[in-house]
């Protein structure tokens, strides 16, 4: 996709006199209209494509993108009309904020549709969706130019109706005279620090900036400026190039090396013969430069653009911090549902996650008497009690590095040896089982009616994977799972019944009581054991 023409490259290729004649409003209208038209056009084509290819799930968000694109095009055509600017009826700052809403819709919905295209294997939609997303990014990159249009247009209007031959210094004539001081621009605002070793320069620049609506303080050299910057916050520093005891580039280097000050925007103040130093400072991180003597209109435009850029950066930083916070919250929620290795695989784009594990140990636990208790106790108290019990079980499982799979009513399921295999999975599950029984008998003995725990364990192969599209569920299947469930349901209150495979794994390190042959539903008669303790 061909992006909008960049203003800087176009102006640099034109003669200086020709570049000055460019209408700033016409330029920004042209530059913004190009990506907005791309958004609108690709959204229309994608809607047709979705209908033709039987993909109705794409239509709602494509219509939202189309609506947002139309809002951008209409706003550019209607709100940036030349007659409105001439009549002073354009609030560019309000328009700047207003355009961000449909632009955010385009970005957000295009990102979701790209994810949907990958998920539904509709890869033919991706190229045009990426063009829409790229056009929104281009529009966002150009948007700050709105904030400089008013000042640049004012500079054009301030030029006298004379020929360049009669008045070669057109910029000088654009400067406000003593009889016509520059009106304060309250919309700009900002607390500025002027750093210059010449008292006259400091006073002149400070007065000019105060006339333009800024709050200004001054420092006589770099050392004083650094001290002032650590005492209170400033929005912008205007820093002279040549000052004792160290020059502006040295002060800038110290600012950029200080974590507390490195993001503070700096405009260098220079004479025209100091351009090499100015370029060096721009490379070091300075935002801009102003040549002496200062043009009042250009001064206000440059500072206004720099402050707005800084504010946008602060908003972006806050937005990114909020996004990071939300990402952490989302990740925490995801990890409450899925094991971390499985969640990582899901985030990497795997859509079907199924693993066959040769040997794990599965535990089911059920609270005996909880149904009777829930019929006699207030519902809030029942939920709190169950939360206390299962939270205690969660702590026991986490301490042994086991993976809790789910809870169903008053039943609890945990497994050892997945999603990452480990050789001691049976031992870890045995520890949790013994600790569960001990926890119920010690910490919840006073509950009335009384409750006890019944536990079943089995060891063997399982299949594990994710099911669901909107609400993920990581679950296990196989004979081992069924056997562990039967061990629990056929166990006794306060006892831990284990299947033969688990007994064989643990017999050398744990103590058991043979229960003998027991009729197990769906399994027939089996010899089972009660786990009683550690050797």
Describe this structure in words.
- The chain has 535 residues and is an alpha/beta fold.
- The chain has three domains: 7-153; 175-313, Response regulator (Rossmann fold, 3-Layer(aba) Sandwich), CATH 3.40.50; 340-534, Alpha-Beta Plaits (2-Layer Sandwich), CATH 3.30.70.
- The chain contains 20 helices and 13 strands.
- β3, α12 and β4 (266-270) form a beta-alpha-beta unit.
- The longest helix has 42 residues, at 296-337.
- The chain is elongated.
- The N and C termini lie far apart (72 Å).
Strand content: 15-25%
Q: Please give the number of β-strands.
A: 13
The first-level CATH class name of the largest domain: Alpha Beta
Q: From the 3D coordinates, which CATH architecture of the largest domain would you assign?
A: 2-Layer Sandwich
Q: Give me the secondary-structure category.
A: alpha/beta
Report on the biggest sheet. Answer: 8 strands, mixed
CATH topology of the largest domain: Alpha-Beta Plaits
**CATH homologous superfamily assignment of the largest domain:** Nucleotide cyclase, GGDEF domain
Count of distinct structural domains: 3
Distance between the termini: 72 Å
User: Per the principal axes of the C-alpha atoms, what is the gross shape?
Assistant: elongated
Portion in helices: 40-55%
* Uncertain ranges: 1-22, 158-187
Gyration radius, rounded: 36 Å
DSSP helix count? 20
Question: What's the pLDDT, averaged over the residues?
Answer: 80
């Amino acid at each position: 996709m061909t992006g909008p023409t960049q203003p800087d490259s176009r102006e640099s290729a034109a003669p200086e006199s020709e570049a000055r004649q460019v209408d700033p409003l016409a330029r920004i209208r042209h530059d913004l209209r190009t990506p907005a038209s791309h958004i609108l056009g690709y959204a229309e084509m994608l809607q047709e494509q979705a209908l033709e290819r039987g993909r109705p799930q794409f239509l709602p968000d494509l219509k939202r993108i189309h609506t947002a694109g139309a809002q951008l095009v209409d706003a550019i055509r209607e709100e940036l009309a030349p007659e409105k600017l001439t009549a002073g009826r354009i609030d560019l700052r309000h328009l700047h904020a207003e355009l961000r809403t449909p632009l955010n819709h385009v970005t957000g919905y295009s990102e979701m549709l790209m994810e949907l295209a990958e998920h539904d294997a509709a890869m033919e939609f991706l190229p045009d969706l990426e063009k829409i997303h790229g056009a929104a990014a281009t529009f966002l990159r150009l948007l700050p130019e709105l904030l400089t249009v008013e000042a640049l247009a004012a500079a054009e209007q301030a030029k006298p109706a004379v020929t360049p031959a009669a008045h070669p210094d057109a910029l000088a004539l654009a400067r406000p005279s003593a009889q016509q001081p520059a009106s304060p621009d309250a919309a700009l605002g900002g607390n500025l620090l002027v750093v210059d070793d010449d008292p006259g320069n400091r006073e002149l620049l400070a007065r000019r900036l105060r006339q333009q609506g800024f709050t200004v303080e001054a420092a006589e050299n770099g050392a004083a400026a650094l001290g002032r910057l650590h005492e209170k916050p400033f929005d912008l520093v205007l820093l002279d190039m040549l000052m004792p005891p160290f020059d502006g580039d040295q002060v800038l280097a110290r600012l950029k090396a200080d974590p507390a000050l490195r993001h503070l925007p700096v405009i260098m103040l220079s004479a025209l013969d100091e351009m090499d130093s100015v370029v060096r400072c721009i490379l070091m991180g300075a935002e801009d430069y102003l040549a002496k003597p200062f043009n009042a209109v250009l001064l206000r435009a440059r500072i206004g653009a720099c402050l707005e850029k800084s504010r946008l950066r602060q908003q972006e930083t806050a937005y990114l911090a909020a996004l990071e916070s939300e990402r952490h919250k989302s990740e925490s929620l995801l990890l409450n549902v899925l094991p971390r290795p499985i969640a990582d695989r899901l985030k990497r784009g795997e859509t079907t996650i199924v693993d066959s594990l040769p040997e794990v140990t599965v535990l089911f636990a059920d609270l005996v008497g909880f149904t009777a208790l829930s019929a006699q106790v207030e519902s809030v108290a029942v939920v709190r009690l169950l939360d206390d019990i299962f939270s205690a079980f969660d702590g026991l499982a986490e301490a042994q590095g086991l993976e809790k799979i789910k809870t169903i009513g008053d039943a609890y399921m945990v497994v050892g040896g997945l999603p990452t295999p480990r050789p001691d999975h049976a031992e870890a599950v045995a520890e949790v089982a013994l600790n569960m029984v001990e926890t119920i008998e010690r910490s919840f003995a006073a509950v009335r009616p009384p409750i006890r725990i019944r536990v079943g364990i089995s060891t063997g192969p399982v299949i594990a994977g994710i099911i669901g599209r909107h609400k993920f569920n990581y679950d296990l299947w196989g004979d081992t799972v069924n056997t562990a469930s039967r061990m629990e349901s056929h166990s006794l209150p306060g006892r831990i019944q284990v299947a033969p495979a688990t007994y064989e794994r643990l017999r050398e390190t744990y103590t058991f009581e043979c229960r003998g042959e027991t009729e197990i539903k769906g399994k027939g008669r089996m010899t089972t054991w009660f786990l009683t303790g550690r050797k």
